[in-house]
Amino acid sequence: MTETLSDIRALVGRHFRHIHRVPEQLISVTIMPIAFVLIFGMLFGSAMEVEGGSYQEYIMAGIFTQVMMVNISQTALGVVGDLSNGLVDRFRSLPISRSAVLIGRTTADMALAAWSCLLMAGVGYLIGWRIHNGLPKALAAFGLLLMLGFAMSWLGALLGLALRSTESVNALAFMATMPLVFLSNAFVPPDGLPAWLRAVAEWNPVSMVVTACRQLFGNPTVGIGSGLPAEHPIVMSLVLIGVILAVVIPMSGRAYSTATAR
To answer: Which of 46, 72, 189, 239 has its CA 20 to 30 A from that of 101?
Structure first.
């Protein structure tokens, strides 16, 4: 166990050193999240109104969740790169825990997601976003977001191991994340949707996490419906993330063993 933790620490450090040498990799976790906050918060916020508060407060939980979903493609592309440049083959020749390779990758990406959250929170504050339920609940919301980002990183690792192609990863990740994000309550209340489509939006996993974060932040929660996800969004979000991790982590381990055996 101690050796595995040491391997994980070394691999996480390796990912950060690589970013230090190639700082362009920080664009996706630095500039894009800030751009999302400014575009949605200021441009759309000038034309949108929500009941119970400002649109800037309503939108922030949605933007946080959207950026966590991007971890799917970020981790998947990193795994594909490691497989294609021979890095994984070099790891196989070293006395290193096989599980540490994927854990190191997903942990490093979760740390980058935390950096994105910090930046977005700062910019969000500048445009009018506020936390109304106190620091402990706010930290719980950020913890929930990072758990989602961690689960999405493992899903991305599985995707990268299965496809092993940047083009396929980009296409499938886009197809998976965009409908989930936009067919939810992340950006606008789904009240105006047809009944069947509104039900889909209410049971959308993204809507559950967004609603949970809005409740914890004390931000407006209009248009959340009346079903189980709306009544218990925090519990439902935790259950969802737990199920994803319980399913995807073992599958990723098997896919890694298969990929390195080729």
So the answer is: 239
Burial class from Cβ neighbours inside 10 Å (0-12, 13-18, 19+) for residue 111 reads middle
Residue 35 CB coordination number (10 Å) = 11
What is the Cα–Cα distance from 216 to 134, expressed in whole angstroms?
9
d(CA 183, CA 197): 8
Count of alpha carbons within 13 Å of 56, Cβ hemisphere only?
19
DSSP one-letter code for 165 = -
Helix, strand, or coil (residue 53): strand
How many other C-beta atoms lie within 10 A of the C-beta of residue 226? 8
Q: Which two tokens stand for residue 215?
A: 């409740």
* Angle, alpha carbons 203-117-126 (nearest 5°): 110
Q: Are 80 and 173 in contact (CB under 8 A)?
A: no
CA–CA gap between residue 147 and residue 224 (Å, rounded):
22
Tens-place pLDDT, residues 34-93: 988 988 888 777 777 787 778 889 999 999 999 999 999 989 988 888 777 776 667 666
Angle between helices 71-84 and 135-163 (to 10 degrees): 40
Reduce the DSSP state of residue 50 to 3 states and report it. Answer: strand
